[in-house]
Amino acid sequence: MKILVINGVNLNLTGKRERSVYGSQTLEEINEKISAYAKARGIETAFYQSNIEGELVNKLHEAFLNKSFDGILLNAGAFTHYSYALRDAIAAIDIPVVEVHISNVHAREEFRKNSVLSEVCAGTVFGFGVGSYIAAIEGLKFRAEQ
Ligand code: DQA
Predict the structure, then answer these.
(1) What number of other Cβ atoms are within 10 A of residue 98's Cβ?
(2) Is the pTM of this model over 0.70?
């Protein structure tokens, strides 16, 4: 099984910005943890980050057209709350996408409680820090084995 982990806008600053919300691990350290966890379960991972909405859309298209992944984890950052372009891209592809958030988006500002992506995602995991990505991998693995 091959899983692509996509992080969107501002996630490159993880470990440096708002540490009380997002923790002190850098995105590189988070990705290493995810990679090691997945590898131990026989799952291959690849990682991508961009602050640019269209580049995230392109990455989703590329994964679909190249048939290169069995599942995608997507932490779109703030794009989650208003990007219909990302929503349409997720709906367009036949790869299950799990919406992931490091923080508990439902325990924060009002605007974070709404996701325009959830309806077209296979599932959503939030609030567990790096554990959100790990739980999403388990969800995809379980789903693939049914
Ligand atoms: C986030 C939550 C979003 O609301 C926020 O805009 C982010 C990060 C998270 O991982 O908790 O940038 O997606």
Answers:
(1) 24
(2) yes
pLDDT of residue 38: 98
Q: Phi/psi of residue 98, each to 5°?
A: -105, 125
The ligand 1 atom at the shortest distance from the C-alpha of residue 22 is 11
Task: Look at residue 30 in the predicted model and tell me its pLDDT.
Answer: 98
Q: Which of 95, 104, 86, 85 is nearest to 144 (CA)?
A: 95
Q: β-pairing, 71-75 with 44-49?
A: unpaired
Pocket test for ligand 1, best of 80, 98, 108, 113 (most atoms within 8 A of CB): 80
Query: Is 22 among the catalytic positions?
Result: yes
Q: Strands 97-101 and 2-7, how do they pair?
A: unpaired
Q: Averaged over 2-21, what is the pLDDT?
A: 98
